[in-house]
Amino acid sequence: MNDTLQQLYQVILERRSNPQEGSYTCYLFDKGLDKILKKVGEECTETVIAAKNSVQADTVGEISDLIYHLLVMMAEQNIPLSAVMEELDRRSMKIGNLKQFHTSDHES
Questions:
Q1: Three-class SS of residue 19?
Q2: Which domains, ranges and CATH numbers included, belong to the chain?
């Protein structure tokens, strides 16, 4: 899985460095951070709706769209994929990292 994300991230970085006419990724970089963040928000909402509708194929598709747009955002912000993977690795090593729930968390 990590190889797939790394390959996709490399393609995104390549598009940023060497724009190609007609590339959606290049379009996003051209429009800038506000457009990229808008797409991240849209895809996040669509992921939640798909999950709520319990249609696995739709949810997988929306998660894939969200991950792609997050990678574009990371590239725009010069955040290497390795930094996120290292943070996930670090978090996976924690034992007993249950956080206190807020009252609102119990009600939803």
A1: coil
A2: 32-84 (1.10.287.1080)
